[in-house]
Design brief:
This protein is mostly helical. It has helices spanning 39-52, 65-74, 80-93, 97-103, 105-111, 118-136, 144-148, 155-164, 175-183, 192-202, 205-221, and strands at 3-5, 24-26. Strands 1-2 form a two-stranded antiparallel sheet. The longest helix is centred in the middle third of the chain and has 19 residues, at 118-136. The structure holds iron/sulfur cluster. The site of iron/sulfur cluster has 14 residues, from loops.
């Protein structure tokens, strides 16, 4: 580390003159500047995720595109584990839009009351079920724009359904994907949409289908918001984040 010399002619706290003295002060370690990742680095990052978990899976329990759609709608500002706990009983009773409408909003609300924002979510689950029956023959449409027109369905939810139910290479950006993309210098985007656009541009085609799951799982279990587990991180040598702890 290069020493930093203090200015001469100052006085120490003890009152002694520094006129002809030089003191050595540690210079703070310079932080690397955020730069664009090279294609080789990006290939290496996703290659390592692939080597560890070739077929990553989402953790929301579901049995068909409809139950997946409902589970993702319920997962906003809630943990997957909390949603799964509530949907096990809900999906036993209603795994189609028709059965969900027959169950009714009061019963749905009661079954999901352990999940945050449950009143609004119960209303949306019934409304989207009604819309699927009225406009799509009770079938979840394989179209992101149409999915986004359903009550309670935003771009992230539509991307998850397009990816997991229909196998499209979409990039759902949640809080984990957003954070990890910034720490890994994959994006400087200020909004989820901007990060999504960056990732869609730079992630190699071979890894695009699973990329959002790898980033979610990495953020959830290793690159946590507080105290990331850098000592167990498989890409630690490729990370220059100021949050890195090793
Ligand atoms: S080294 Fe730490 S901060 Fe960097 S990606 Fe890994 S877990 Fe995250």
């Amino acid at each position: 580390m290069k020493p930093l010399l203090a200015k001469k002619g100052k006085t120490t706290s003890a009152g002694t003159s520094l006129k002809d003295e030089a003191i050595v002060v540690a210079r703070p370690k310079p932080r690397p500047r955020v730069r664009k990742r090279t294609p080789e680095e990006i290939e290496e990052i996703f290659g390592r995720f692939h080597a560890v978990e070739p077929e990553p899976k989402g953790e929301l329990e579901h049995s068909n595109p409809f139950t997946l759609l409902v589970a993702v709608v319920l997962s906003a500002q809630a943990t997957d584990a909390g949603v799964n706990k509530a949907t096990r009983r809900l999906f036993e009773l209603a795994d189609t839009p028709e059965k969900m409408v027959a169950l009714g909003e009061d019963k749905v609300r009661d079954l999901i009351k352990t999940i945050g924002l449950f009143r609004n979510k119960a209303k949306n689950v019934i409304l989207l079920s009604e819309k699927l029956i009225a406009e799509h023959g009770g079938v979840v449409p394989e179209d992101r724009d149409v999915l986004q027109s359903l009550p309670g369905v935003g771009r992230k939810t539509a991307n998850v359904v397009m990816n997991m139910a229909f196998g499209h290479a979409t990039m759902a950006v949640d809080t984990h994907v957003f954070r990890v993309s910034h720490r890994l210098w994959l994006s400087k985007g200020k909004t989820p949409d901007a990060v999504e656009a960056d990732l869609m541009k730079i992630v190699p085609q071979t890894y695009l289908l699973h990329a959002h799951h790898w980033l979610i799982l990495h953020g959830r279990y290793t690159c946590k918001a507080v105290r990331p587990l850098c000592e167990t991180c498989v890409i630690a040598d490729l990370c220059f984040s100021k949050d890195k702890r090793i």
